[in-house]
Amino acid sequence: MSQKIRTGDVVKLDAATDVGWWMNVFDALPDATFISHARSGRIQVANKACKTLLGYDIGFMLGRTTMELGMFETKAQRDALVEAALASTTFVESPFWAVNNELKQGQFSICEVEYAGTPTLINIIRDITAEK
């Protein structure tokens, strides 16, 4: 398949391979990316970069909210970030906490989509701590 991509040929996926293919793409993203339930905020899926950025094992993150992970000091801070990111056409910068009380700075991009009839958030965090 990589040869087809390099030569510009169209790579066709069938229904049986789409989910696995997209999960590989999702996991390969360099930015921390997770999918959460829009109403409860519970994380449903997280990529490998989440472990690198936040310091938590993926299994530990699943089913928890960013508040339960201690990423934000207050729910008001978290809610304001989500609201601003959903309204933004690019990203919103905000501090957040990783494991072991490590304060980091991130660029957050969040979009809401409906998946299988459920409002879902796609959350992307780029670590810009070193730049600040």
Verbal overview:
This protein has 132 residues and is of the alpha+beta class. 33% of the residues lie in helices and 31% in strands. It has 5 helices and 5 strands; from the N terminus they run ααββαααβββ. A hairpin with a 5-residue loop joins strand 1 (32-37) and strand 2 (43-46). The radius of gyration is 16 Å and the shape is globular. Residues 1-7 have low confidence and may be disordered.
List its salient traits.
132 residues; alpha+beta; Beta-Lactamase; five-stranded antiparallel β-sheet; 5 helices; 31% strand; globular
DSSP summary: helix tally: 5
What is the CATH topology?
Beta-Lactamase
> Which CATH class applies here?
Alpha Beta
Our estimate of the beta-strand percent is: 25-35%
The N- and C-terminal alpha carbons lie at a distance of 40 Å
Number of strands: 5
